Amino acid sequence: MSYAELQRQVAKINDVLNALSVLTWDSRTQMPLGGADTRGQQLATLTDLARRLILGSELRRALEGAEHEVSSQAPDSIPARTVAQVREAVEVSSRIPAELVSDIAALKPTAQAAWGEARAANDFPRFQPYLEQMLDLSRQLAEAIGYSEHPYDALLLQYEPGMTARSLSALLGELKTATLPLVRAIAQKEPPRCDFLNRDYPEDAQREFALGLAKKFGYDLSRGRLDISLYPFEISFTRQDVRITTRYRRDYLPTGLFGVLHETGHALYEQGVSPELTRSALTTDFLGLYAVGGASFGTHESQSRLWENLVGRSWVFWQVQFPALRATFPEQLGGVDAETFYRAVNRVSPSLIRVEADELTYNLHILLRVELEMALLEGRMAVRDLPNAWNAKVKEYLGLEVPSDTLGVLQDIHWSTGYFGSFPTYTIGNIMSAQFFAAARERLRGLEDALAQDDYAPLLKWLQDNIYQHGRRFSPQELLKHTTGKPLTTGPYLSYLREKYGMLYGLGEQA
Ligand code: ZN
Q: What is the DSSP letter of 158?
């Protein structure tokens, strides 16, 4: 009876978190500007309500009873994982003082506003005191959550459970060692032709084409929709309603096109969660206070990157899709063939802005952010020294001079909202995506043929069976172990990068 009672209470918490998500989706896609203040209050009220339910005595009582009731079940069964997950969340959340939670929540909007002004005015000192406060609160949060080695470990727990500063530094170090020579070798080569990407592409036609690809991948529009927002995202209110957004640039085709493929990958994950887990603890992130089905941020990102890059930027994909794309944009793509298009959308070109970076240099953007945020957290670096440190790393890794803080240290919103520890999940996602895709190729007979025939159903089914259906039941490490037989490792990703860019740029063996 207690387990059933626990499920009822968890379902309620899941409902509150989904209501929060609906309001968040609305505020980013539909809400008039005037709604911002009261919407902020509504979100704060619901967040507080969810936290109270999680820390309340009712849930605690049901949890204790349920733990007893399911104690004879296999440790990785759904009931055992449910109670374990609720227990961990309750314990970690109760270590975080309510005052700290409200201090962080109160600082977020002002720090974000200061960041926005500082970015617009290229004025880092305006943002500096807010970042110092946010860093201080994040340190307090790390201390409250607790860690054995590095404060970063505690913050990573919110995004990538099981990952530590030590293992992350090792992974990123391998990636850096392998990527820098590739980027430098490519810089010596003739860049591919790209002019046609900047022709005039009407938005409606972009939308129709991209959504057509999303449907081919398996995005179910009876449980989904595509809207426009300033920053693209995916959000779900149970597997029955999984929405994506994108932005279109009329003068640059890849932004909208690959943006849709990326968010579709996230959406396929959420739509593929087993119906049995709807409104359960295994589709609820109690610590981050989100209703979400994915095992971690990195695992989620592995799926967006898998569909966007490993499938959507592959040669076999554009061999199949290009005729239809050219038929949609006959003037813009006149005189361009599939191979020219494929080379253009895979161009490597070091740039200042992370969100515009190519697949290869993207990880260098993450690497420098992670190194800086670790140094800040450890107190090895002061916030006032951040712009210079940033610029030095951009010079070292990307070979570029940073002309302004707007195009440098102020470009991302993350630090103003206190998301220390979330950047690495993008690169973890890249590494994982190659591992999962390599396993699918190895274990799924006929995958190559299916992809060459524009058939994505076998790949989607393999991913659903092995990853999506489980929601948060298994940790990222367990999912990797079950599907690939290995822990998180850079091998398949580095092979993928070397093979792909070696072919594209005729690098031979030297890289
Ligand atoms: Zn993503």
A: T
Provide the sign of the torsion angle of the four alpha carbons 416, 421, 425, 428, taken in this order. Answer: positive
pLDDT digits (tens, 9 = 90+) for 405-419: 999 999 999 999 999
d(CA 10, CA 140) in angstroms, rounded, equals 28
Domain ranges of the chain: 2-132
Centre of ligand 1 from the C-alpha of residue 414, in Å: 14
Residues flanking ion ligand 1, Cβ below 5 Å: 301, 304
Confidence of residue 109 (pLDDT cuts 50, 70, 90): confident
| Strand-strand pairing, 224-228 and 242-246 | parallel
pLDDT at 511: 43
- Using alpha carbons, list the distances in angstroms from residue 293 to 276, 278, 439, 471: 12, 9, 22, 4
- d(CA 193, CA 335) in angstroms, rounded, equals 12
Q: Which of 390, 353, 373, 369 is nearest to 131 (CA)?
A: 373
Ligand 1 centroid, distance to 263 Cα (angstroms): 6
> At 106, is the pLDDT very low, low, confident or very high (cuts 50, 70, 90)?
confident
Which residue is associated with the tokens 């500096």? 128
Name the H helices within 33-96: 36-55, 57-69, 78-95
**262 Cα to the center of ligand 1, angstroms:** 6
The residues that are catalytic are: 263
Q: How much helix, strand and coil, in percent to the nearest 5, is found in the chain?
A: 65, 5, 30
* Centre of ligand 1 from the C-alpha of residue 312, in Å: 14
Residues 6 or more apart in contact with residue 309 via CB below 8 angstroms: 359, 430, 433
Distance CA 416, CA 109 (A): 9
Instruction: Please write the tens of the pLDDT for every residue from 250-309.
Output: 999 999 999 999 999 999 999 999 999 999 999 999 888 888 999 999 999 999 999 999
Tokens 């084409």, residue?
209
Strands, sheet with 224-228, edge to edge from the N-terminal-most edge strand? 224-228, 242-246, 234-236
What DSSP line would sit under 278-320, residue for residue? TTSGGGEETTTTEE--SS-HHHHHHHHHIIIIIITTSHHHHHH
The model's confidence at residue 188, banded by pLDDT at 50, 70 and 90, is: very high
How many A from CA of 235 to the centre of ligand 1? 11
